[in-house]
Design a protein that fits this description.
The protein is of the alpha/beta class. The chain contains 18 helices and 16 strands. The chain is globular, with a radius of gyration of 23 Å. The two termini are 18 Å apart. The structure holds flavin-adenine dinucleotide.
Amino acid sequence: MGKPTGFLEFERTLPQKDAAESRKQNYQEFVHSYSDEQLNQQAARCMNCGIPFCHSGCPLGNVIPEFNDAVYDGRWEEAYQILTSTNNFPEFTGRICPAPCEAACVLGINKSPVSIEEIEKHIIEIAYKNNYVQPNKSQLKTGKKVAVVGSGPAGLAAATQLNAAGHEVVVYERDDKIGGLLRYGIPDFKLDKSVIDRRLSILEQSGITFRTNAEVGKNVPTSELQAYDAVVLAGGSTIPRDLPIPGRELKGVHYAMEFLKQQNKRVGNSSFEETEIHAQGKNVLVIGGGDTGSDCVGTSNRHGAKSVTQFELMPQPPQQRTAAMPWPTYPMLLKTTSSHEEGCKRYWSVSTKAFLGDEKGQLRAALVVDLEWETDSLGRPTKFAEVAGSEREIPCELVTLAMGFLHPQREGLIEQLGLKLDARGNVDAVEGQYKTSVDHIFTAGDMRRGQSLVVWAISEGRECARKVDEYLMGYTELASKDKLVSYA
Ligand code: FAD
């Protein structure tokens, strides 16, 4: 514990951000760093509370009080060692994680929680600056070959761990660049792609082979996987939820990912063949109130949209915890993201009944209706009914559908391998085991657990790597969130 009275003396502060108007002019990250004094004070707020619930809140089991202590004392290399003993990519989670650890922070019971995510980002950025982040070339070579299909956070974490265990690892990625949704989903203003490239260079120097424009089951035959001793499938959950209402076929109605991926490609100077989708001068309607919807808001504002509106079917979440979401669970509270701050009209309890077009088949409006929700005894929404007389047209020339993802793509790889699926249509494999119905094939990340978070993808990639290593060698010395390997 850095400073016993730190949590009494210092309030939670977050680093400054560029003003909304100026950050909308470009696609760059806009969150500044703490001063040295601020970083020291924020680390001092960690109470060493005896039972650090933050550990269990974090899917990676990050050893948070220990790294806060090292930060407080300026023991940067040690802080880095502690952090990376559980997390392969703190530079990603430090930028974009919704921080379930902070929701479980004991200080958060009656004060603002420790700013764990920001501290994590500072540790890894200081580590890069001080050259602590070095390629990890395993001295041991097992002679075993492992294929990883998919280069999102799950695939990259699995590849990193398996490479460290001495296996020869080849990562296949169907896109032209590595990173999965880190690269072509999450906008550059939340995660600059140089952050991925910097990590990628370390992974390449560590000996991992990357093959891009390589879709297994399409231009790479699935039979190629037989040459490997084990395979990790980390292809994500890519099939979006549709809104099959009248007018869905109109020009101007798109899945969010069609819109977001194009923009990331524009920023990254990658080419794309699809018709351009651009929000400039348009009234944009974003349907879906989650992270993906928020990214559409931020991107539309940067395009120069005339107006941006976001609709959510569910009622507006509360601002404080309720009886249905007690500490230390992750609370579903009203979230106002940096993209919302940049300009957006938000409405909850709204259902879209039809898209309306002009004579050329171009979208001109959405027909919507307000909903009234019934709730259970804990205030959780259960049933809705349309509010009579609330039907109205909302003028819009671009709609992005951001209503989540259903399951992984079946066509190609999954069908050709004959993998068993679970009830939700994800690749069937028990959490903690990660083994599919086909011998020597494992799976991790969104492809197994369904649409989730980067921190879960990294966690699954790491845990899956342990199981693969055990399968190949009969034992494993790789770390697990339940079995830490010394960071000293
Ligand atoms: P993915 O990142 O989806 O990677 C899968 C990769 O596999 C893709 O690159 C795909 O091209 C490749 N692939 C698939 N099939 C094949 C094949 N047959 N051959 C070769 N390659 C293949 N989470 C957060 O924690 N914070 C956020 O702020 C956040 N924002 C998000 C914003 C958007 C727009 C979206 C869509 C998601 C967001 N998420 C966020 C969720 C997070 O990005 C995912 O949970 C995470 O990326 C899943 O990682 P993954 O490795 O399982 O899959």
